[in-house]
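EI: anyone free to look at a 330-residue chain?
SC: sure, send it
EI:
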Amino acid sequence: MKIIMFGTKPIEKSYTEAWAQKTGNEVKMVPDPLNDDTVEMAKGFDGVVTQQTASLGSGDVYQKLASYGIKQIGLRTAGYDMVDLDAANANGITITRVAIYSPRAIAEMGVTQAMYLNSKIGLFNQRMKEDNDFRWADALVSNEIYNLTVGIIGLGHIGGATAQIYKALGAKVIAYDPYYDPEQEAFVDYTDLETVLKESDIVSLHTPLFPNTKNIINADALKKMKKTAYLINMARGGLVDTQALIKALQDGEIAGAGLDTLADETTYFGKKVAADDVPEDFKTLAAMPNVVVTPHVAFFTKTSVRNMVEIALNDTVTIVNGGKTRNAVR
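SC: here you go
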């Protein structure tokens, strides 16, 4: 079987080559994302796999893939908001994703950023670097995690792993998710969204990006949070109204933010761009000592990369051969 793998990163090469050797399939790796400009590269292949946050393009992409005899698109991601599911369905294309590749990787990054902010490290660094000020300051005293309430919004695999880590550290963990999971009762107290916003010292986002979750953290939501609270977003940039967040940080409505994703990230995350092409919202956030921004790399561990490659490729073979996988989106 011949598979083309779009959006290939250098670190994925060894895992892909090992999989191809083990399974006897051929994989062509290309760095380009799948879109209207690159879709013709898939001609002559049996299956398609991609990893990207940018849209796959117009409906023509799905039509062309179908005309090439391709029955599926395998995503090496958990999220699938970059896919036009209606267009895929209309052209008989099954979308698969890697729903579970390493929830702990993303959970650990979120906890790491929260602990960095909670310990005021960025603020201490600013004082030392800019003013040669190495003194203690009452305003910079931190609190230990076991004294805090952590609110999880979205209690799926990653949100659940996050809850378990905080619970192990002794925090009180509350969560909002419209879908109840009894297995999480040992780690969280379920509640409503407003309670999570009002009572949490750390609000951690782990929900998919859907029309009903877009800008779930907006100006009103930020005003409900404690002035001493931190917002952590390890999920999708569109969950947060970036301009409202910047204003809330500037006005002292919340204490800080840890962000592995931003709403406009597809224009520059994963790329080396000229200084003039870096958006102003990123520059503003990155300059704040009470903000941590990383370029959507929370998933980026050896375990995650291997699993994302192997699971996506295995599902591609299954679908092309007429089988079914639990990782099909619909």
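EI: The longest helix spans residues 302-320.
SC: 👍
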